[in-house]
Write a structure and sequence with these properties.
It is built from 9 helices and no strands. With 213 residues, the chain is mainly α.
């Protein structure tokens, strides 16, 4: 069986430590548009990215709580004003349009310039705060999609599977280090897996290059 089929991890927590349910649903909807699922790979929702973000701003990124709290409030004011509903109730296409308006297009050159974005004003709406929040969410979404599952995101190692990364390994054999080796053949491991193996560590000799090889 391939590493894709053997990935293991500890169950991820469902409890929220900072967001309320509505805030979490909004952040989850935003991250899913930034990293959407397709027919082959799970997106930010399946990866549990919102739980990574919730943990992050409750821990080492507490300084970003204000950006999220006030940014989400301004986003809802904007959506109510422009679409007469909340962000989570918009269609996927409408959500993409909102994100692109404040974050910019995925492809440069076919939307307003950075200077035009920076100078945009909407009466009664803090445009800069919404833009800052989307920038932070994009960065956090990427972190949460590719982090070790122990930190709340990358559930089922979906991010690692997407890029063919075998996760956390004790080391790599000479064969595995050869150019062209298919890393997806290596069973994916997480930090939780390595902790379980502490009492039965692999022989380091397998990672040494033998003379004459």
């Amino acid at each position: 069986m391939s590493g894709k089929e053997n990935a293991t991890s500890t169950p991820e927590p469902e409890a929220l430590t900072y967001f309320n349910d509505f805030q979490a649903r909004t952040v989850e909807a935003i991250t899913e548009r930034i990293i959407p699922a397709d027919s082959a790979n799970g997106g930010a929702t399946q990866a549990g990215v919102v739980y990574y973000i919730d943990r992050a701003i409750s821990g080492f990124s507490t300084g970003l709580q204000r950006v999220y709290r006030l940014g989400l409030r301004e986003l809802e004011r904007f959506c109510e004003r422009e679409h007469s509903t909340q962000f989570v109730n918009l269609t996927a296409e409408q959500q993409d349009q909102v994100i692109r308006r404040f974050l910019g297009n995925e492809i440069r050159g076919d939307n307003m310039t950075q200077n035009e974005q920076d100078s945009e004003t909407i009466e009664g709406i803090d445009v800069g705060l919404i833009r800052s929040m989307f920038s932070v969410i994009r960065e956090h979404a990427i972190e949460g999609y590719f982090c070790d599952p122990v930190y709340g995101g990358n559930r089922g190692a979906v991010g690692w599977r997407l890029v063919g990364f075998p996760g956390v390994q004790w080391g790599y054999t000479a064969e595995q280090m050869k150019p062209g080796f298919d890393a997806t053949q290596i069973p994916i491991k997480t930090l939780a897996d390595l902790r379980r193996e502490l009492n039965n560590l692999p022989d380091n000799a397998q990672y040494y290059i033998k003379e004459g090889k």
